Batch of 3 targets.
Target 1
Amino acid sequence: MPSIYADLHLHTVLSACAEVEMLPPLIVQRAQQLGLGLIAVTDHNCAANCAAVSQAAEGTELRVLPGMELQTAEEVHMLCLFECLEQALTWQGIVFDHLPYLPNREDVFGGQYVVDRNGDYVRTEERRLALSCDLALDQAVRRVLALGGLPIPSHIDRQVNSLLANLGFVPVDLAAPALEVNGRTDPDELIARQPDVARYPLVRNGDAHRLGEMRRGIVFEAAEASFDALAHALRHRRHRIVTG
């Protein structure tokens, strides 16, 4: 079976912290240059640009998973990946119900833009997205799983907005299918420092806020790039982190 390279963590111009170049056609073009077969769109607390990136990839071999990067009540970031757009938008509705409504100040925090498949402006998201919702980490994990998604705590060893920085440990009953490590982290050294991490498959992604940060994060063998193939690879640890 062919090797599928994936980057499961990237932001578009819907995330105020992303560069203006993070537009659907440019993301797809960069993914093809890197030889990626699977990417996931993971803007902060919102899935409004997932459809545009998926549409931009039509006619290519690139598969786009819809999702978001949730900020939990503990200020822990977590990837929420789904097979189809309907699941992601259902989850977005749930998150919005648990997210305080504050208007975004574009002059302070940056713009949050919804675009079409060509990268053309559609609208501005007026509510500030980079906030904590009132769902605790364990609640969020359970609800994403109930929707058929993959909840993966982000950059768990980062100094802010991470599992280890904010909680200090990995909860023993955390039902996440994997944990994401930082781009420069040596997994073996992390496990030596934090042995409870070894209970989970580890993935590495670009956390791309600009095109140059997209990367071959993990690789697994599958007949085709798909959500099910990714879930199977994580479940059976039939994947590996790409180094270099």
Target 2
Amino acid sequence: QDTAPPVLLEAEPPMLCTRFTGRRIALHFDERVKVVDAARQLLISPPLANAPELHVQGGNTVVIDLQEALAPAPTYSFTLGEAVVDLTEGNPASGLTYVLSTGDQLDSGAVTGRVLHAATGKPAAGVQVLFHAAGDTAGIRRGRPLYAARSDGEGRFTARYLRNGGYTLHALGDRNGNLRFDLPLE
């Protein structure tokens, strides 16, 4: 029985590359893989208006086809969650994040924290942590966040590759995946 998750061997363009101008990213794994629940699992920061298409090519390569050009200068992180699993046993390649920059350098800011449920004080797992411009109190309802992260099972989150600056953070149980507070139960 296969209990080992898929391992990323190589990426095109290479991980942590700069001056990226393309629309295609290829992630090569050590075994045959499939993509599951990409719409919920994939988290791109800074968020894109149009979700990329993910598909498997040649059995062991996951291709991310971007549906729009990336903005000039930011560092983008593609957190795959548990979207990539091995073909035979479904072991997820958990914790996989691919990073690139469209600018001359990688942004180096980072924020770590823990999200607790306001009513219970218990860790809030699987919620979106949204970064808006400092002082932007309406962005959670109407705008798109500058960056996003997801809390783990203990409510912990880490957002890396941020531009230096000030941010207003919101934690959101985003039921419809649009990174906005727009449903009654979110």
Target 3
Amino acid sequence: MDIHEYQAKERFIAAGIPVPPGKVATTADQAESFATDFGCAVMVKAQVHSGGRGKAGGVKYAADAAAAREHATNILGMDINGLTVEKVLVTPAEDIDTEAYVGVLVDRKTQAATFMVSAEGGIDIEEVADTNPDAIRKLAVDPRDGLLPHQAYWLANFLYEDPGHIKQAAKVIGQLYTSFVDAGASMAEINPLITTPDGAVKAIDAK
């Protein structure tokens, strides 16, 4: 069963992963109201069980509440890969320094939870695997031990050089594994995991 981005973010928040706040709107009026409440630039994001939302025009930056209303009007009812958009997520826009990919899934061959991380985030991991496989680090997790702290650090160290970023990312990776196991999921993904100008590491997307 697939779940929407906002539902995945709820699980991430429960696991302690730093996720920006967000509100789900089903009308343009609601989107405008939520953007007004946030009082800053926002992203208006289509909520459908499909990848490629941005490429399809389902993810838009809104500098103010009026723009959020306009984008919600255009996105609601949109067809994305055969799915009709009935909800949008309104969330504060973040200043982004870097984008990384962090995901864990059940490897069908080994039947083990396997992490994949890459400093090339914000794009499909399949594209990275095809064009630059060396940009991906993988780790199979032994279910008897779970993800160990040094393994999380090893993965985070592949993403960043800054010690502060590595420490935060290692914590996020551990929390993602906890969320993945607690949900009985077959896949959990953060794309992108960002760093901000003030040195924070945040998950601004969830799958």
